[in-house]
Amino acid sequence: MATKIYVLCEPDGEIRYIGKTSRSLLSRLTKHLYEARCGGGGHRCNWLRFLLSTGYIPTITLIGEVKGNGSKEEIAWIDYGRSQEWRLVNDTDGGGGSLGTKMSEEMRKKISLCHKGGRLTEEHKRKIGIAGLGRVCSDATKSKMSFNGKGRIVSLETRKKLSVSLKGHPSPKKGIPLTEATRRKISLAKMGGHSSLETRQKISLAGKLRWAKRKERKNECK
């Protein structure tokens, strides 16, 4: 049996979740989104709901494929990510799927209903809304997230390991055009927003670094 080790990332590429599956990556991503939309609990579902509320979906990327159930590899990756202070939303140390996370009977029924293609009742929709679907973070939470993300520098060794593991594995979403509904959500999320001078400077610097790296690689190939 072959098992895929994968990561879920923010739109900017930041790794937020590490998992394993024996199915296709698209199927696994679909299941994650179903669980979040149906009111699933845990850090992963809360993060996915917040991301969906802004009009985005996470990217899923294969970082390795191993023989067996992949438990040891998943545990090792999660442990490594936490040692590097990645903002992982994994609820467990890995290796056992949902081990340590118990869902209520009501939650199981909601997820089952979604997977069967059934329609949610108005009562279910109301409860999902209360659970946090489309929730907006408080100013205190935003401040904590900003503080945790500032000054985080991924070491050169870590970047090399990620580069090697991700090479040859393009995103399953590559080449797939966005739906009209998704385009509208992204447009609404960005409407009226203006990047600060600091943000524009960061974007400019990032672009210059990318071009410098490309030029460096071209020179190495000559």
- Please report which band the strand proportion falls in: under 5%, 5-15%, 15-25%, 25-35%, 35-45% or over 45%: 5-15%
As a whole number of angstroms, the C-alpha radius of gyration is: 19 Å
Q: What is the number of domains?
A: 2
The end-to-end distance, rounded to whole angstroms, is 42 Å
The averaged pLDDT comes out at 76
Give the helix level as a range of percent. Answer: 40-55%
Number of helical elements: 9
Query: What is the global morphology?
Result: globular
Q: Structural class of the secondary structure composition?
A: mainly alpha
Low-confidence stretches: 97-101
Report strand order across the widest sheet.
2-1-3
* Biggest sheet layout: 3 strands, antiparallel
How would you portray this structure in words?
This protein is mostly helical and 222 residues long. It folds into 2 domains: 2-191, no CATH class; 196-222. It is built from 9 helices and 3 strands; from the N terminus they run ββααβααααααα. The protein has helices spanning 25-37, 43-53, 71-83, 105-115, 122-131, 139-149, 156-166, 180-190, 197-221, and strands at residues 2-9, 15-21, 59-67. The chain has a 3-stranded antiparallel β-sheet with strand order 2-1-3, with helices on both faces. β1 and β2 (15-21) form a beta hairpin. The termini are far apart.
What's the arrangement of secondary structure elements?
Blueprint: E1 2-9, E2 15-21, H1 25-37, H2 43-53, E3 59-67, H3 71-83, H4 105-115, H5 122-131, H6 139-149, H7 156-166, H8 180-190, H9 197-221
Antiparallel strand pairs: 1-2, 1-3
Helix pairs in contact: 1-2
